[in-house]
Structures are given as C-alpha cells and as structure tokens.
Amino acid sequence: MAFRFSATLLLLPIIIGQALAADLYFDLPVTNAIVAPDGFPRSAIQAGPFPGLNIVAMKGDTLHINVTNELHDLTMRQSTSIHWHGLFQARTGSEDGPAFVNQCPIAPGQYYQYNFGLAEQTGTYWYHSHLSVQYVDGARGTLVIYPDDPLKHLWDVDDAGTIITLADWYHTPAAEAMEKFARDGHEPVPDSGLINGIGRYVGGPEVPWAVVNVEAGKRYRLRVVNIAAYAGFTFSIDGHSFDVIETDGIETRPRTVSSFDIFAAQRYSVVLTANQPVDNYWIRAPMVLKGGSDTLDPNNVKAILRYSGAPAVDPKTNQLVLQKGGGLREYELQTLIKPGAPGGDAPADRVIDLDFDAAGPGLWEINGIPYVPPTLPTLLKIINGATLESDFTTPEHTFVLKPNQVVELRIHGSNHGMAHPFHLHGHAFDVIKSASGPVNYVDPPRRDVVAVEKGGVIIRFLTDNPGPWFLHCHIDWHLEAGLAVVFAEAPEEQRIGNQSGIITPEWRALCPAYLALPKDKQ
Ligand SMILES: *[C@@H]1O[C@H](CO)[C@@H](O)[C@H](O)[C@H]1NC(C)=O
Ligand SMILES: *[C@@H]1O[C@H](CO)[C@@H](O)[C@H](O)[C@H]1NC(C)=O
Ligand SMILES: [Cu+2]
C-alpha cells in the first residue's frame, strides 16, 4: 500500500493507530524564501513550509522522500544534501545524507528521492542539510516515528502539537558567518533563539510567542528537539515538573526533573501532566553558548504553555516556585529496553582515543588532523574497493572498523569552555561515562549525541551496521572547521553479503552531475 501525503495534510493533527508497515511518499522541496521568525526578514532556506515539514511515520514503514532542490540565492550554497538524523540506515548508507561521506550533493534544479526503511526504530528524530553549514540557514525539520508501545500508558496526547523545536537563528547567511569565523576564530553568535520557529531579538518587534495548548488533567508527551547549529538550551516550564522518557529515540525509565540541558541535535521526550490551575505558564529555554552579541538576549527564549480556558495573554509566572526533581543529570538516565553496554564491563575489542582541540581561527582538529571532505564520497571509494586506512588520505581521517566488534571511543580534549555535542551516524551508543558521573556498564543512557565537556566521555557501540559513518561535533561551525572523523565500518560487508549496501543508478548519477557544476552552483 502506498500513501502520498501533501504538506497541508501533515499540518493537521495525525491520527495514531496500529497499521501495517507501509510505503510512505513525501515531497520535500528545499527552497529559498524570505522569512522573519524573530521579526527580522532575511532570505533563508526552508524544507517544505518554514520552519520545516514535520515528517510522520509509523514503526516499520519505508520512507520515500523526494527532495527537490529549488535553491537559487547566491549568498548560500546552491546544492544540497539531506541527513535523517538518528536513523541507522541498515543497508542504506547511500541515503544517510552527509555530503562527501555518503553521497555527492543534489545539484540545483535536480531532485533525489531518498528511500530507506525504519526497521525497529521509533521516537523523535529530525532532518537537516548536511552540506557545509547550510542547515544554519533553515534547511531542517522534525521526523517522528510512532508508536512507542512500552510507555504508552503514561500519556493521553502525543501529536504534532506536542513537538517543541528549539533553534538558534542568525540574521547573516551562514556562509558569510563561517568566513568571519575563519578570520577571527570566534564562533558566530546567533541573533535570537526560536521555539517552534518563533523568537525575539534585542531591539526587534514583539513577535507573539509560540503557544503550546493543554487541557487541565491531561498528560502530554512533549517531544523536545534541539535543531540548533550552535546553542544548547536549558528547558523548563514554570510551575511544572515532568518525567523524561526518551533520549534521542531510545526509551528510558521515567525520571522526574524540573529542567534539562539539551545540546545541538539532541532530543528528549518528557511526560507533562497539566495538573496546575488553569492559566498561562512560561516555557523557558535560555541558551547555553560561549560568546554574546548586541542582538542576542540568551535568556529571552520563551513560549507559552496555555491551559484551555485561560485568556490569550502572556504569562505572569516566575521560575522561583519550587518544583519536584532537580535539573537532569544525563548519567542518571537508564535505558528501558535491552539495557547494558555492548561487551559489558569486559575490555572492548577496539579502543580509540580521540583528542580534540582548536587548531587556529575557524579550525578544529582531532588527534592533530582537521577533517577535510574528499572530492569523491567515502561510500563511493568503499564500493570501488577501499578497504584499508591507507586507502584514504590523511585529511579524510577515516578509521576502518572490523565487523561485530565492541568499539569504545574515549573522547577527550581541550573543550575551550563549551560543551561539544558529538554525534555518531549509523548507530546509537551507550554513554558509559557521561560528562559527569560514574562509569556505568549495566544500564547507561543510550543515544546518538553526547555532550563532551572538560572531563571527556566514553561511549561504546557494536559494529553491526556496515557503512561509512560520520562522527562529528554538532556545532555546525566546528564540523565545518574540521571537528570530525569518519568510520568505514566493515567495508567488505558493505560490498557483498546479506548486509551489503543498496546502490542505485540514481545515487551513482549524483556525483557526475555535481562535479560538472560551476563553482557557484555547487
Ligand atoms: C520528484 O519530484 C520531481 C519534481 O516534482 C519530479 O519530477 C520527480 O518525478 C519526482 N521523483 C520521484 C521519484 O517521484
Ligand atoms: C548473514 O550472513 C551471515 C554469514 O553468512 C550469517 O551468519 C547471518 O545469520 C546472516 N544474517 C541474516 C540476517 O540473514
Ligand atoms: Cu564543537
């Protein structure tokens, strides 16, 4: 059975029911548009309607997403490439999206249909451009896979209205900001923070805050997604505590907290019970980042939790009312299903130390190497026979991993006063040692983005998914500055056997089309 959704239909509340695995077709036009989410009009990029088409699927579905590249604004990259953040892409590494790791970008005026199955994954995901710093200009949106059976009895409402995106927003095109970063070494500071695509900047108009509507007595699964390029956020709701139940698509044992830090590309689901007097309450998401600007008030990132029956006015609540639970500590979260790090507390098959540092203005390195993307994608090289680390150049910084091994990454380094959210493609990993807290092999949190601070982190995963997988800081300025490595996982199994990658003529056609483009169209 095949269903075709239009963008308009997806804005309606979705009906969740049990359904057979289906093939879902989406059109995702990537276009330039003038948008003003904080009242400042600028030319930007939108994926579907701004702030992004919400892609909705059911467990087991196969997605066919036709990305049409309609970009033409010369202040931004003209080509594009879309990554489906957090999806494992078993056998479909060709559809993962990172430019020059998994594919060549889609040329302007062209389209590419991404085809991939969701297998067993459920939960909260998002998608974004993975070409240079292009997603900073707006090329991003959410992707949610229902249902999540084991904890379903905990909430009454879980729909498009309970997805909350947190973003940072810049008035300058990202390419220009990146050039400045390369000159002065200061990470570009956003002009505002957005909740569900709405925010305010200092000196700007009083744009009406986003509203999340609730009814007294009901329980809501809020899916909080950090789609920012740089900022972390500290999320809280005046007068309410809530139970964390998901880290990046992985269900956790419910844990009551009054706030949590969420770093770029991370997701948390929380269950909120609307158990307070009918009124308006501030949702707060002050930004966590290094540096400041005249236009950014990092504390003025808000939205309204409005109970049905409350007047349509701004809240008068403050944060000082005591709430149950403290701030979330990542290491206290426990994975609900099949907990336990691969290999338990036995030594890993392979330990890789990753030591990162700033290497100059707009330049970051891991183990002394700033990552530079190759001209031909890592995946194409693997298909054509690349098997050893020596088959890749030094700046491609590619580690070859053997199949079915427990790999332990020890990420440490000079963090320069900020949290670096490291993201691994193709896997979720167990966070054996979080930025703070003890070592845990038994039931540590499992996720796909972990914040690395001064103390470093230790993570583990099993190499059960052949493919070329990026590991990088999700501060997009740092990724572009070289804070990345690539894992060529099981190259032989990528080529032949029952886990081999599916490679289509359409995928092969991307590189010739892209490489033939003049520079300003790339
Ligand atoms: C993708 O969209 C384009 C533009 O509408 C269309 O020409 C093309 O046939 C579509 N591709 C697929 C595979 O549906
Ligand atoms: C894939 O092949 C390997 C080796 O032939 C075998 O051990 C494994 O069970 C197969 N897996 C699946 C899912 O068929
Ligand atoms: Cu970083």
TrEMBL record:
Molecular function GO labels: copper ion binding; oxidoreductase activity
Presence of keyword Metal-binding: yes
Signal sequence, start to end: 1-21
Cited InterPro entries: Cu-oxidase-like_N (IPR011707), Cu-oxidase_2nd (IPR001117), Cu-oxidase_C (IPR011706), Cu-oxidase_fam (IPR045087), Cu_oxidase_CS (IPR033138), Cu_oxidase_Cu_BS (IPR002355), Cupredoxin (IPR008972)
Organism domain of life: Eukaryota
Domain Plastocyanin-like: 45-148, 162-310, 371-492
Pfam families, per database record: Cu-oxidase, Cu-oxidase_2, Cu-oxidase_3
CDD domains: CuRO_3_Tv-LCC_like
Keyword annotations of the record: Copper, Disulfide bond, Glycoprotein, Metal-binding, Oxidoreductase, Signal
Presence of keyword Oxidoreductase: yes
Family: Belongs to the multicopper oxidase family.
Protein name: Laccase
Organism: Mycena belliarum
